[in-house]
Amino acid sequence: MTDNPSYDLECLDVSKNFGSIRAVKDVSFDIPSGSFFSILGPSGCGKTTLMRMIAGFEDPSGGDIRIKGKSVLGTPPNKRNVKMVFQHLALFPMMNVYENIAYGLRCNGVGNAEIKRKVHDVLERIALPDVAEREIHQLSGGQKQRIAIARCMVLDPDVLLLDEPLGALDLKLREAMKIELKLLQHQFNTTFVYITHDQSEALVMSDNVAIMNQGEFEQIGTPQELYHHPSTAFVASFVGDSNRWSGVVKSSDSTGGKVETEQGLPMSFSSAGEKTMQEGSRVNIFVRPEFIRTVRAGGGDLQDAAGENRMDGIVDSLLFNGANSRVLVRTGSGELVESDVTLTGENDLKPGEDVHLVWSSKQSMCFADQGKA
Amino acid sequence: MTDNPSYDLECLDVSKNFGSIRAVKDVSFDIPSGSFFSILGPSGCGKTTLMRMIAGFEDPSGGDIRIKGKSVLGTPPNKRNVKMVFQHLALFPMMNVYENIAYGLRCNGVGNAEIKRKVHDVLERIALPDVAEREIHQLSGGQKQRIAIARCMVLDPDVLLLDEPLGALDLKLREAMKIELKLLQHQFNTTFVYITHDQSEALVMSDNVAIMNQGEFEQIGTPQELYHHPSTAFVASFVGDSNRWSGVVKSSDSTGGKVETEQGLPMSFSSAGEKTMQEGSRVNIFVRPEFIRTVRAGGGDLQDAAGENRMDGIVDSLLFNGANSRVLVRTGSGELVESDVTLTGENDLKPGEDVHLVWSSKQSMCFADQGKA
Amino acid sequence: MLVQKKATPFLLGYRLYVVAFFIFLAAPLISAGAFAFNDSLFPALPWQGFTLDWFFGDTEPKLGMFHDRRLLQGLYYSFVIAIFVSALSVFVGTTNAFLFVRGEFPGKNFFYIMMVVPLVIPGVILGISILVLASDTANYVENRFDLELEFLRPGILLVVVGQFSFIATITSLVITARLKKFDETMEEAAFNLGASRARVLRTITLPFLRPAMIAAGIVAFLVSFENFNTTLFLVGSEAPLTITMYDRMAKVGSTPVLNAVSFFLMVGSGLLALLSILIQRDRSGQ
Amino acid sequence: MMQNKDIKRLSLYLLFAPFALWIILLVILPHIGMVVLSLKEKIAPRVYEYSFANYLEFLNEPIYWNTLLRTGSMSLLVTALALLIGFPIAYYIAKIAGPRSRGGLFLLCLIPLWVSDLIRAFGWILLLRETGVISNFLLWTGLIGEPVEFLYNDVAVIVGLTYTVILFMIVPLVSTLDGMDNAMIEAGYNLGGSGFTVLRRIIIPYAMPGIVAGCIVTFMLTAGSYLTPILLGGKNSSWFTEQIYNQFITRFNWEGGAAFGMLLLFFTSLVIWLGLKLSGQTLANTVAKS
Amino acid sequence: ETLRLLTWGSYAPDELIEKFEAEYPDIDVEVTFSNNEEMIAKLRATGGAGFDLAQPSHDRIYAAQLEYDIYKPLDLSKIDTSVMEAKLLDGVKENTTIEGEVYAVPHQWGTSGLMADKTKAPDLKSWADLCNPAYEGKTSMRLKRTILLGTAFSMGEDPFAAYSDLDKYQGILDKVAEKLIECKGNIKAYWKGGDDLSAMMLSGEIVGSETWDSTAYKLFDQNKNIVFVPPKEGALAWIDTFALPRKAKADDAAYKWINFVLRPENVTLMSASTGAIAAVKGGQDLLPEDKKAAVNAAFTAEDIDNLKFFANIPPGVEDMEGKTLEKIKAATGG
Ligand SMILES: Nc1ncnc2c1ncn2[C@@H]1O[C@H](COP(=O)(O)OP(=O)(O)OP(=O)(O)O)[C@@H](O)[C@H]1O
Ligand SMILES: Nc1ncnc2c1ncn2[C@@H]1O[C@H](COP(=O)(O)OP(=O)(O)OP(=O)(O)O)[C@@H](O)[C@H]1O
Ligand SMILES: NCCCCN
Ligand SMILES: [Mg+2]
Ligand SMILES: [Mg+2]
What we know:
Chains A, B: Keywords: ATP-binding, Hydrolase, Nucleotide-binding, Transport. Chains A, B: One of its GO terms (biological process) is quaternary ammonium group transport. The complex is a heteropentamer, with two copies of chain A, one copy of chain C, one copy of chain D and one copy of chain E. Chain C is mainly α. Chain C has one domain: MetI-like fold, CATH 1.10.3720.10. In chain C, 74% of the residues lie in helices and 0% in strands. Chain C is built from eleven helices and no strands. Chain C has helices at residues 9-34, 53-56, 69-102, 108-120, 123-145, 156-180, 185-192, 197-226, 229-234, 241-252, 256-285. By secondary structure, chain D is mainly alpha-helical. Chain D is built from twelve helices and two strands. Chain D has a two-stranded antiparallel sheet with strand order 1-2. In chain D, strand 1 and strand 2 (47-50) form a beta hairpin. In chain D, helix 8 (182-190) packs across helix 9 (195-223). The relative contact order of chain D is 0.13. Chain E has helices at 14-23, 36-46, 62-68, 86-95, 145-154, 159-162, 166-183, 194-202, 213-222, 251-261, 264-274, 289-298, 301-305, 317-330; strands at 2-8, 28-34, 53-54, 71-72, 97-98, 101-102, 105-117, 139-142, 187-191, 208-212, 226-229, 236-242, 244-245, 277-278, 308-309. By secondary structure, chain E is of the alpha/beta class. Chain E is built from 14 helices and 15 strands. The chains are: A alpha+beta, C mainly alpha, D mainly alpha, E alpha/beta. The interface between A and C is small, with 4 and 4 residues. One adenosine-5'-triphosphate binds next to strand 2 and helix 1 of chain B.
């Protein structure tokens, strides 16, 4: 029936139309057992729709969805062994924690003694052994989060779906829960499918990430692949910060080439894959701020900097943000370039100083211009 | 009447009790004209209460508040020339943009022609010249933000108070607005008092930041001062991430000293101010992840690393987050140490590798143990 | 499925049920309205042909409603009563909203329940109890001081007061709900921008409440207009339309002119309801 | 700012005044008056004495308490019917109808409010009577051979009352169901619940405040209704409000009428109190919320 | 000023009011429809205020006045009593004189009796025939005191005579109640106003009923088979009167109205609306033609002789009767 039974979840050319809106377009992917898979994309790109099809709340307009190798197209949502953590958690306010977790077991006709054992077991595993008798409104945001996961995990699902479960939490808690979620996934060793529009969540937690845009998957890969070797301009700009230049290819071969930017500056790049950019074609160059080194014009260490690309400018301003500080440099052609710096409080750069910006052609990502702004 | 008339806002021993709760305790500070001042502190520390006293919505239980040198204690809120941007903005939904901005002018009895001129003027300055006739619900989050500021600025306030104005925005927009707010403050050259519990907002935008904790100001200083020379353990841990060790001072003088940690490791530090740590006293050592270099055990560049502190360990896991990636190293004594790394996708560290952690004693911040956990 | 829109037979059956329900809702109104156009002296089958006489006829026996002074008078009194009742109820509803949303005072919960209670007291009993109190008071004053307090005798005032006694609960609930959604920082923002207390109320708070006040007013108007149980005991010589129609039906005999009035009221209320929807929509826009 | 506190206190008094006047003058005092009146016994023309005679009269006369029990049980039946019929409608409006048709359907639900009780009853009379629309329609379809009387019986009363009050059941139900996150229902399915389980364990418990609110209002309106049972009822259909009316109007027995009024109020309050106890709700979180 | 009438439905036809207002331009007439019980209840609640002229039946004034003091004496000098049928005037005066003051004068009189569709119920002749199983489910009555009295007569009792001995009267009422409860099965429904009675009768849903004569006459207009049948025990006759509420404020206008409607040309208009006979001399001749025909179809001379005028109700009787009616209503029968 299926080629590879070790995939917990497979989607084959799944698509969904709402009237004339094509919310999901021919999406295919498969998730190996026990991995953490994220779907990252901007608001409205179709993430929730895709997830709802997997859970069975929407019928795909086309394609197939398989769980543990079996198509679930005809299976109603309450018969699919795919559990879901909703964005606002959807804990049942009229039941206490125990009843919330027991709900699914009761639906499966599990006996009371067994239920009791399982609920306490799962509460242990999420490190909240004492909250069984609490009402939902007596829990903190992070605790609710964990109860929502426990409520699913107690049913031993094949796949756990999470739809932006951290969206409603505040900043500090969100940071803490990121790591916690990853640990929980290790704990339970269940396949997690995680939806988010926050790149840092996707990068930190996932084994694999799919970047979704306008109903389509642009790229699937490990966080590092996506960050360092984006296959499209969209991925490059959506994942991580970038400086961007438009230009025209002057010369190129399979290993890289040279571009002249609109401002007239030469810039060299290495080819991401085996694709050769056509000479004369319009391209966009992306360079991440952390790969640009800012060095004082007077300083002697310019030679150290292994970088085929160089630019001169004046420090415009410093954005001090502790470890993530950044310098804005105004180049000769007037544009602002962002570059990461470490500000130690001693001998730091100051606005007005002349600096050189240096980076390696390996770090210049080049994409053909799609004609979009 | 006052010693220094160039302060736009001065607070002298201001305190506020709600019944037995002491929300604000003897807070004093002064803000020079035209500067950007932030109050940073955890939730519930009394930030909003302090701001509401400045705006006149609460009466201080003690102390004095002066604006442009004049005490405003008896002045009702609608007569103080201190304007406020509320957390959820509190734009008036039953009025359009024009009427929202004109509201304060009308209250002051300004003539219609004059109002028109001023409103259009301020809309120009916030770079939204065409939205005058829009309804509030037709604006984007960032536009609303700017209108809320314009509504205050059109009245030429002595001080503008902002209470977590970015709290309700989503991640990407928040990043963008941070920089924008700073630019607007330059534009209007008015004193901004900015409240937040997000350290990155406070660090990026402010000329000066006050760190507030449990109703008290722990430290006031520039972002760099706070980050690099925190005067208390609370400031060190609240501003920026840190690794923390508890230990006992073995030897010390006015320039620094040596500590033995609970795990028995020796560690050296430089003294932050002129204070000399007492030998034998219990202290906490804080080290920021970005100042710890992680080098491969086999690599030869250990000598390069100027650092009096060194520790050996094994890479436990990598948290890939683009430019903000981090490595967790498990040291011989079993604890996890966080260190920032740049992961380029090529020749990166891998879990299980033996590494050395190296950092300079200059970057070890040492504080007497307050007895708190 | 309980939330899905798939075209299952279950959903089809469900839809049919909903349609049947709305037919049930509309049936008596349609029948009451339709016979207004029956060219017969009795509001009954068989159908004798179409006529507008029951609206515009100006001679007996087919005296149309627009020429029937008693009905018109009833309409007028209903209108006057409803106007007073809704004005009063909206006013008290608004003060109650402020009292219960903004006020802090001991026993607040208890008083809140007291506010809801009139809604669940049977209308007949409200009418009677007010009648009894008013006439006892009037009789006492008359016997004791030989003073006739005419306003305590059945009449427009008592009807207004009697209807108000429970309609105020409805308006209070509607306006309270709206005020609860009001973000108080909006008022603080206005103060902060230099507005006086009165100005804040006039320019910020009341405009925010306005849609709820109008909606509550319309509901109050409709409920007053159609009230029978409470009014029955309090009415004097100035009978509102429902009482006039009831007397007509029970004591004179119904002709299709009553159907004509019904039809007229349906159209009137329908327009009012539409108005309140439009206001509601305006509100959701904000 | 002491002045600020004084203003606050003053405005509290000013706001409390209309409320107090309303509740004291129009609700509490009249009911105290009723109680006092109900405790008077008529000895001779214009001579009264305080006693429980009127209440004893009620207890000693099976006609009266039978009528009260009948009114109560029929009201409960109407309430139950309104809930059964109304719940699916409310659910449809709140959860299944699209956002656009929702407003329209809700408006349609309010249609019976457009006209008075009287006209509604009038409409039903025209439909139900032996020579009315339904009977004629059935004759025409051949389903019945001769005219059938649908009017003047308890079924007609129940239909008419259900019709009149169902709106007050649907409105609070729609508003509570509307506030229910769809994700809650989906979570119910996702965790393995069948349609029935989700309904019983999630939707109904969630909607409980709305259900109770609707039931209270519906029950009170039904028990206190006058025109519908009078006009649609048959020769055996007596209603307690009619009894009260008769005491006041036909028998000029205000004292007895007042006692009956208090009894009706007491009885219905008791039923509601029981209902609240059984459902574990309070008046404040049900009726007051709707 | 305003003249507020508290009267029976159709006792103040628009045509007449317009004519009156044309004659007295400064008087506005406002009408409240009512019946005997409600008139008393209303005036009791208002302490006799709120209305300027009431029109209760002659038998319902004495006790109400004694108990509730709701009327004031008439100034007979302001009424043109000469036009009134002397027998009726004297009867009313006799019934409504308290401490030497007269409280009412007659206006219209008529009867309560039976109505039958000749073709379908040719044998309906006695009050008791309403309970005849031959007409099962096809008769009706109004559950008010008229049917109690009628049934009492049909059982051979004289309820009016028993007014002086209330225990005896109670005995009669109990028997009547028993009979009427038994009869419930035979009844289709109790009618409540002229309207439902007309509808049932015209549609043929019932074939006979207790009725006011005026209602029967109206139906005769529509269907010549429907006639008023004076019961063989004698039709019960009532006289509706004019009485001034105690706190009436427009006495002059009230007197003007009384005199106005007693004028012959107005009597015809009034009778056309009420279907009853004016208490003026030759009242029967002043009936409009159709009503005259109906009356003639219904009454023979001996029927007229056989009329039983309602006797004055002593205090307490209404309460006894009311309770009896409740008992009948609440009983489950049929
Ligand atoms: N029931 C529906 N009917 C019509 N269009 C729909 C429906 N559900 C979703 N859409 C449309 O499909 C597209 C994808 O929606 P979806 O909710 O999947 O986005 P998302 O990626 O989850 O966004 P977000 O991050 O904001 O949650 C959107 O354009 C949305 O408007
Ligand atoms: N009106 C009040 N009555 C009693 N206590 C209050 C009142 N307002 C604030 N507090 C208390 O005073 C303390 C400080 O509250 P405040 O709102 O100033 O905190 P905050 O720093 O603004 O927090 P957040 O970041 O969550 O907004 C809290 O403990 C709070 O509970
Ligand atoms: N007194 C009886 C009057 C009847 C009116 N139609
Ligand atoms: Mg989504
Ligand atoms: Mg705050």
